[in-house]
Amino acid sequence: MRRWLTGPVGAMVLVLALMSLAMIVAGTSPVDGFRALIVGALGGRNEIGETLVATSALLFPSLGVALAFRAGLFNIGAEGQLLIGALLAGAAGAQMHNAPWIAIVTMLVLGAIGGGVWGAIAGFMRARFGASEIISTLMLNFVAADFALALVNGPLKGPLATGAETAWLVPQYWMPTLLPQTRLSIGILIAIAIAIVLQWVLSRTVFGFELRACGDAPEAARRSGINIGRLTWIALSLSGAIAGVGGATIVAGELHRFNTQLSPGYGFTAIAVALVGDLQPLWICVAAFGFGILESGGLAMQAAAQVPKDAIHVIEGLIILVLAARRYVATRAEGTV
Amino acid sequence: MSGIFGALIVLTLIKATPLIYAALGGVISERSGVVNIALEGMMATGAFTAVIVSYASHSALAGLLAAVLAGALVGLVLAIAATRFKVDQIVAGMGINLICSGAAAYGLVLIFNQPGASAQVPALGRQYWLLVLLAFALAVALQWVLQRTPWGLRVRACGENPRAAAAAGIDPLALRMWAVTYSGMLAALGGAFLSIGELNLYSDGMTAGRGFIALAAVIFGRWNPLGAAGAALVFGFFEALQYVLQGRIAWLPADAMQALPYLAALFALAGITGRVRAPASDGVPY
Amino acid sequence: MTGSAALELRGIRKAYPGIVAVDDVDLTLYAGEIHALVGENGAGKSTLAGIAAGERAADAGTVTAAGTVGLVHQHFELVQRLRVWENVLLGREPRKGMEIDAAAARAHVLDLAQRNGLQIEPDAAVESLPVGVQQRVELLRELDRNPAVLLLDEPTAALAPAEIASFFATIVQLAQRGTAVLIVTHKLQEVIDYATRITVMRHGRVVERMRTGETTVDAIARAMVGGELPVVAQRRPTQPRPCLRVRMPELTLDVNGGEIVGIAGVEGNGQTALVDVIAGLANAEGIVEIDAGDRPNLGIIPQDRQTEALVMTWPVVDNVILGRQSILRHGATIDRARAIADAQQIEKQYDVRAASLKTPIRALSGGNQQKVVVGRALIDDPALIVAYNPTRGIDVGAAALVQSRLIEARNRGAAVLLVSFELDEIFALADRILVMYRGGIVGEIDARDDGARAEVGRLMAGAR
């Protein structure tokens, strides 16, 4: 019972209950509120497209966060990793003159490298100095935002741009659309593919086994000969790389330029998504779709039910707080926070 | 040149003050054995509460007191989660951060009918220098409390080995509950300083990771109040430096310079962590 | 010598999920007596002591005490980073105004120690003290409350033989002054030497009550086990061939294939560092060479199965994989079919009682968990086996099985390094005995020599 309550299904029920409560407090009937939400998120081709765009944007950082969590590492820097990945992809895409598929693949690879390096910094600091990845990944979010802002206000600023953004990609460099007449690109397929591979890696491979051992019993892992330092930086690099690819798909698939406003906090929502998905990649796909509905239907709900979209962050926080009753990491190494 | 120098010193004191409050909150919580990732949210709560109460009562002082109470409340939430429900303290802290910043953003829309920032409210004015002084006084006082008083000894015992404390007849859960509640009060005071001390409004994201910089200060200060306050001064200096240098170095854009305090915290963290020892039961539920 | 009832336990019962730890136990302690509570691991002794001391609540039954009840824990509950006087007076600090009166506290602790014939340095940090002295600190903390009843949980587990005598001198003195003392122990000779009455527990129940004058070590042991003691495998002649060679500034060690070398010593004399260096987990000045021939190098039985050997939330099968990833590797993946076969083999050879191999290992009893740890270390037939307290905290049946498997591995030509804090275990298994003291080897003893035990005891206490 307890496990069920604190598991994915219980979390979903909790979300619905809390949202109903918020609507009642705001003086709207939950029926109207949810109708607005569902219609807003799934009521038509365009709405479904936008919901899946949000799902895709959430899925990448959520998988990254989950990978790190499984290794016992609290990566709360997915936001910054995603941003750096997007920045690199956007900067390169705006300058390139190659064949379209080369350009798109290059952008995705650069996204992975950018996010990966950003994660690797935290991983290196943890492995080499024992520095808390919680604080370092969070600090790196701010560093990423400030650097990105400096670059797109300066050397990378698009010649015609009014805000803080790069030049647009030429249309040949846009990632193919998945659902015609919507913004949904094939990026979501990449995310699902990563989820499937990650599920396999975690459950079947030696690497996944060692990663989980580090997360569930670090001392037993160390004594069984696993090199924890090496695993730490690999896990945080991969975690960042997945978030970074996500940033690149937003640039190449939906936005077609880099903009400092491109993420409304996907990297933070990703923590809730990963926990609701029980840190299992395939469940996370389901959870990301649920949160995608919240993201895209939230605006419609805001208009109909008078519940501001910001309230969703409160709900996400409450979900995380409730799910914290489960144990994610066996024993944390001494002196980390 | 002395003009710049003087400005740097004054600005350092101002920028360090909220960090000192939050870092002292971090010290007291972690010395009792509860990792407080929620400092950031507690600061946001303090900053926001100070503004709305000051707005409603036209009294900045009332705002300040309300902020401390609100901080105590958030502290109590983390305390109960950590003691009564034995949650993963880090995950819970992240949840509380999201709740606090989300609730403040929600509150801006509900109360001021505008997203992003509040209206201007009565601020502390010149009195905020008293808060600067108080921060340093509290650092000294907390050092004394932890090192010299029975309560301080018991806090340290609970952070090291709560079972030993229990064997000596102390209730570690009650003690941690109080320590984390005080921690919330201190962090909220730091947040209130940001909103109605330095400024006269609340805006989304105004705490800007200071709760986490404060955590780095706790580590850098080896979990001692005076050390943490000293580290907060160092990080405050880098924040001040960034303002003073803006526009003076042509090749370095202002946006990039804003990263200075975060980079300072990162380097400090990398440099010190291997050489310090956290309380042995920090973050371990009892 | 014995007086009025100091502690009365009536109908005590305590259940944990899946097990009744204490089942309807009555026990009366009289002022001035030393009472021994014995039983196998898992018989419910420590649980009962915890209930008597008020540290945990019973599900049923009553506890009546004539005064305070003090408990000295097996694994001391001390704050390592605090000073001695801070630990002793924690919660009852003398005050001067709002501050702690440190001078008064020091004087008080010194006085308390002197009155009880114990030597202590009040300002020393507890973490800097040897284990035996740390126990004194915990004892002083309890004595400061003038307990009517003093409960001692395995008090001599971490003491050298010489320290044990002086420890009991203190305890006998306490009893003579009217304190009721309950010793929870598995060292039966100490029971015979110092206790007056004995209560034997098995599976949570009291099965026998005895007087020391009227019983023997063997009789107590049979009562604990509930029948005859299990037999350990026989040693057979072997052909020694060099296997492990350690050359470090303070320590020279050779272990041959076909022999068990026992490292005796009090906890905290460098055993952990030695094991870590051999396992390649720590660097040290010097040489560590393993000549394994065509066998795998090393199988390790770590000291603490719960944190160092097993992932408690994982199934039995996955725990059988841990540490053997390179052996079970199949491309990038793990050969799960082989892992399952290995787990089944261990289950059979070691009589592991588990609902299924998919059961999380934390659901198994300590003895069954340890069987998995030992089985995993031995299954690939390594040339060198390092066993660190391999039978700690498990029942007699499981311990005999573990010891038999170690002897059989030795008979098959494996080199076995046995590090144990239990002299009985060392003498039962080892062909040669080395004594460790303060990080070095201080002597080598042939296990079959007369007077070997006394000599080992002397060396463990630091005599040269």
Please outline what is shown here.
The complex is a heterotrimer of chains A (337), B (286) and C (464). Chain B has 286 residues and is mainly α. Helices cover 74% and strands 0% of the residues of chain B.
Looking at this protein, list some descriptive labels:
heterotrimer, B: 286 residues, mainly alpha, C: 464 residues, alpha/beta, 2 domains, 33% helix
Describe the structure.
The complex is a heterotrimer of chains A (337), B (286) and C (464). Chain A has 14 helices and no strands. By secondary structure, chain A is an all-alpha fold. Chain A has one domain (59-297). Chain B is an all-alpha fold. Chain B has a domain at 18-209. In chain B, 74% of the residues lie in helices and 0% in strands. Chain B has helices spanning 2-31, 39-57, 60-83, 89-112, 128-148, 150-160, 162-167, 172-198, 210-220, 225-245, 254-257, 260-272. In chain B, helix 3 (60-83) packs antiparallel against helix 4, helix 3 runs antiparallel to helix 8 and helix 9 (210-220) crosses helix 10 (225-245). The longest helix of chain B has 30 residues, at 2-31. The radius of gyration of chain B is 19 Å and the shape is globular. The relative contact order of chain B is 0.21. The model of chain B has no long low-confidence stretch (mean pLDDT 93). Chain C has 464 residues and is α/β, with parallel strands linked by helices. Chain C is 33% helix and 27% strand. In chain C, strand 10 and strand 11 form a beta hairpin. In chain C, helix 12 crosses helix 13 (366-378) and helix 13 (366-378) runs parallel beside helix 14. The chains are: A mainly alpha (337), B mainly alpha (286), C alpha/beta (464). Chains A and B meet through helix 6, helix 7, helix 12 and helix 14 of A and helix 4, helix 9, helix 11 and helix 12 of B.
